[in-house]
Design a protein that fits this description.
With about 375 residues, the chain is an alpha+beta fold. The chain has 14 helices and ten strands. The chain is about 50% helix and about 15% strand. Helix 9 packs parallel to helix 11 and helix 11 packs antiparallel against helix 13.
Length: about 375
């Protein structure tokens, strides 16, 4: 059930998507430059209507939206474009983590700057060329990116890759190995980083198949000095920052890919209503009708699941269980991929042609078979919790 406050927020977001995202999405997606799909104009317009900062409490200039409302907003954004949803989902969730995990001095130093900057975006540096699923399903291996203690701080060396908003963020949470030889879950530290710190540069922007309105990039560290006051939580306890402060990440990822599923489903219905084959519209053929009903079922079930996870993340005393931090995204991603292939089939050859927009959505739908955790890894993670 959507309450009046949520309805007002969602109406604003839907209007923003209709006016600012949809008209630009196809052209930005088609830019051959991997960095070219990102739009500061969209970010600035989102800032004006309060989307960019909504998860911050009112004290810091936000709306204090809870995780369920935020998940609804993320889905609404993804109905317009998955990349736009991703850049804001990352920023909204990291703002949430920062407000909870940063100490008082760090909050005062970072949150007002982030909140007042119309281009303020956030990123989190975890994934490395060697370590991705190793982080979701902790394997006794350290991060390659290391931080060694020095006078008054730490010297960071290494590289992160595939980082959403990596080349666009103004602030970062970075995870680096501070206890050599220890597993990453037991020997890594979370650092707060600002853009432009000496020794920290942006590497290449990854050239992706889909989700092109979001940039993913490499973060490169060459003897980058990070002062002690930028340690988030305790040294060596970086992993607990995520476990403690961010159970709803999976639900937000589920909401992102669900928005793509909804966009595909709408295209399937529209096409089935106008395309005549065998003497009648496709929607009057029983096989197509049944398929559309199954799409609806998969969407509604995925939404219920992720909404439950998002609500319980904020109210764990009512029955949070750790599988809710792994399975909703996997379910929504599988549903979206199935709906993408069906929508492509319903469109026939037209679906394969770029001008109908199904081809873009299919490329986008593929993103979350692995994004925010490879599905197979998440199933194993949930099995371990069980």
């Amino acid at each position: 059930v959507v309450n009046p406050k949520q309805r007002a927020i969602l109406d604003t977001v839907a209007r923003f998507v209709e006016e600012e995202v949809r008209p630009r999405a196809a052209q930005l997606d088609a830019d051959p430059d991997p960095a070219g799909g990102f739009s500061w104009e969209i970010v600035e317009k989102a800032h004006l209507v309060g989307i960019r900062t909504m998860t911050l409490s009112e004290k810091w200039g936000g709306l204090g939206t809870d995780s369920l409302t935020t998940a609804m907003v993320i889905e609404e954004l993804a109905k317009g474009d998955i990349g736009v949803s991703v850049i804001f989902a990352q920023t909204l969730k990291i703002a949430q983590i920062m407000e909870k995990a940063l100490n008082t001095e760090q909050q005062a130093r970072v949150l007002p700057k982030f909140a007042s900057d119309p281009r303020g975006m956030l990123a989190i540096g975890i994934t490395e060329p060697d370590n991705a699923s190793n982080y979701f399903l902790p394997h006794p291996t350290p991060f390659r990116t290391s931080a060694k203690q020095a006078s008054g701080g730490w010297i960071v060396n290494g590289m992160k890759h595939f980082i959403s908003n990596g080349n666009r963020a103004s602030f970062y949470l970075l995870f680096a190995q501070t206890e050599p030889g220890e597993p990453m879950a037991e020997g890594s530290t979370c650092f707060l980083l600002e853009r432009g710190r000496p020794g920290f540069t942006i590497g290449r922007v990854h050239d992706k198949m889909g989700e092109r309105l979001a940039n993913n990039a490499e973060l490169v560290f060459q003897d980058c000095f990070v002062p002690d006051e930028n340690v988030v939580g305790e040294p060596g306890k970086g992993y607990s920052v995520l476990v403690q402060f961010f159970p709803q990440s999976n639900a937000y990822a589920a909401a992102t890919i669900l928005g793509v599923a909804v966009a595909l489903y709408r295209k399937a219905i529209e096409w089935a209503q106008v395309r005549v084959q065998g003497g009648k519209p496709l929607i009057e053929h029983d096989g197509i009708r049944a398929q559309l009903a199954e799409m609806r079922m998969l969407i509604d079930a995925s939404r219920s699941y992720l909404h439950r996870a998002a609500w319980l993340a904020d109210h764990p005393e009512h029955g949070w269980d750790k599988t809710l931090g792994a399975l909703p995204k996997a379910m929504a991603a599988q549903a979206a991929w199935k709906i993408a292939t069906w929508t492509m089939e319903i469109h026939g050859g037209h679906g394969y042609m770029k001008e109908f927009g199904v081809e873009k959505l299919m490329r986008d739908a593929a993103a979350f078979l692995h994004s925010d955790g490879v599905n197979r890894t998440l199933f194993l993670k949930a099995a371990n919790f069980m």
